[in-house]
Write a sequence for this structure.
């Protein structure tokens, strides 16, 4: 799919001259990049005393980091839930599984990588450890791992194979490391009530021949140190990691037992060892959209109010599933509890099957379902995280592989060549106009802001010139990194324009794409 990335900028002075309540934009050519003196500020403090105008002004000043910009450009990422649950049929393991149950005799991570590449995915995340505590790499810190299985005589390392295969096929590598660990609970480490004390990471064990170039002294509980040591292994022995995925689960332990996670120390270690990796979901870079259906809000803001909890964890100021996360009303609603306004874009996770782990009696979603999810995630300023679970042979099921290819082909037909890619473009106060050179039918419209300068657009209208008059084709609210609009029927016109009717500050558009689907 060809993607046009033309940048148009709306200046504050011209915006003010348009006379709209929430200023509309005027456009001229933008600078190629912010200067060094304008490094992004992804988090800005707020106060209960801030007025609505204060909050909107601060929101307009929030900028993404370089790692967040790179992540939002991925659009489609993959999850691979794989572990002892694949063989027990459970979704949540118990921690006391016999490691020997893990027997993926036909493991072929190159097959995974080819299927994901052909499906249009740019990053893949492996469940290196789920809540049961079974790990898919050769860890020094637990016996609940592939090293304790007879599979490949205890020498198997799924993470090694996975990372090598993904990079071989041009796919970035992510790791899911569950904070919960029911195996370590059974061993008296997880949720044992220990105090936070300083720990040296990595903590060398008997026979450990490592000579770390640098060690870290970090505060943690007994279990927090266990996690730090495993994170150190994962982040230093398997090549560059581009996403570290934490959830907030506690596992199925007694309700009076709680492990207060050492988020600050975990984040510090990740930032030190994988500086380009986004820390997702229970992390400061990427947030969970709030459902497991892969669906973003109609107006999904990347700038949202947050509060800090539990040793520095970035958390929602509003409910995680609030219908409105970042509008003016949402900013005001969150004012009593919010600590900051932060660039915290949404990740939409969903499984291709009903379960997250493989179950033989389940089948993949249809192409129509996946396409609808794409438009309601990627098309709504979010990144899609689609889970495709390997089976008991260690392969992606043939039906799922076929569906991934069909899904990519369908998206390519929905958004084929951008008709406006080489069209003549003009700008004026509050609008960008495209002349296609002749009348063309359009039924898909794609817009994007240049998010290096924040997310500013609150509302806009797309119009087509027909019989000499401009006619509204569609309108919507936010844009952000990606907004795709589907027209109910094709509209035929030569000249098209987008008018920003509401903006927090100078709005810069990076893309105004027009498409005629071939579905």
């Amino acid at each position: 799919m060809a993607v046009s990335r033309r940048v148009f900028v709306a200046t504050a002075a011209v915006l003010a001259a348009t006379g709209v309540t929430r200023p509309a934009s005027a456009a001229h050519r933008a600078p190629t990049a912010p200067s060094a003196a304008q490094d992004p500020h992804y988090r800005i403090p707020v106060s209960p005393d801030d007025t609505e105008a204060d909050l909107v002004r601060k929101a307009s000043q929030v900028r993404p980091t370089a790692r967040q910009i790179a992540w939002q450009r991925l659009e489609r990422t993959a999850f691979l839930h794989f572990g002892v649950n694949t063989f027990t049929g459970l979704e949540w393991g118990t921690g006391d599984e016999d490691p020997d149950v893990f027997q993926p005799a036909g493991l072929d991570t190159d097959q995974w990588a080819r299927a994901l590449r052909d499906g249009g995915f740019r990053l893949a995340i492996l469940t290196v450890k789920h809540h049961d505590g079974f790990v898919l790499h050769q860890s020094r810190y637990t016996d609940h791992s592939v090293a304790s299985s007879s599979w490949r005589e205890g020498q198997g390392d799924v993470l090694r194979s996975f990372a090598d295969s993904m990079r071989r096929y041009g796919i970035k590598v992510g790791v899911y490391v569950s904070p919960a660990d029911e195996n370590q609970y059974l061993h008296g480490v997880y949720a044992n009530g220990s105090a936070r004390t300083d720990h040296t990471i990595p903590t060398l064990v008997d026979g450990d021949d490592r000579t770390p170039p640098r060690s870290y002294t970090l505060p943690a509980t007994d279990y927090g140190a266990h996690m730090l040591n495993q994170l150190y292994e994962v982040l230093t022995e398997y090549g560059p990691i581009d996403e570290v995925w934490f959830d907030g689960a506690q596992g199925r332990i007694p309700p009076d037992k709680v492990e207060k996670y050492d988020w600050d120390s975990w984040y510090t270690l990740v930032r030190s060892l994988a500086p380009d990796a986004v820390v997702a979901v229970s992390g400061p870079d990427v947030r969970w959209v709030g459902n497991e259906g892969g669906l973003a809000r109609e107006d999904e803001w990347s700038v949202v109010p947050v509060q800090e909890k539990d040793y520095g964890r970035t958390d929602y100021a509003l409910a995680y599933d609030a219908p409105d996360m970042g509008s003016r009303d949402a900013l005001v609603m969150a004012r009593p509890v919010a600590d900051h306004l932060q660039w915290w874009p949404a990740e939409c996770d969903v499984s291709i099957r009903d379960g997250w782990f493989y179950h033989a009696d389940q089948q993949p979603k249809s192409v129509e379902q996946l396409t609808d999810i794409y438009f309601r995630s990627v098309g709504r300023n979010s990144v899609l995280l689609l889970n495709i679970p390997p089976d008991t042979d260690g392969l992606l099921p043939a039906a799922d592989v076929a569906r991934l290819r069909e899904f990519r082909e369908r998206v390519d037909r929905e958004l084929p060549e951008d008709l406006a890619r080489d069209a003549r473009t003009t700008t004026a106060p509050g609008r960008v106009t495209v002349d296609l050179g002749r009348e063309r039918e359009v039924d898909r419209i794609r817009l994007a802001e240049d998010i290096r300068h924040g997310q500013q657009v609150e509302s806009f209208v797309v119009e087509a010139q027909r019989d000499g008059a401009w006619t509204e084709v569609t309108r919507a609210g936010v844009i952000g990194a990606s907004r795709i609009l589907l027209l109910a029927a094709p509209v035929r016109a030569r000249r098209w324009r987008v008018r920003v009717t509401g903006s927090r500050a100078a709005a810069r558009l990076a893309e105004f794409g027009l498409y005629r689907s071939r579905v």
Notes: The mean pLDDT is 92. The CA atoms of residues 194 and 221 lie 6 Å apart. The longest strand covers residues 483-503. The first helix runs from residue 12 to 17.
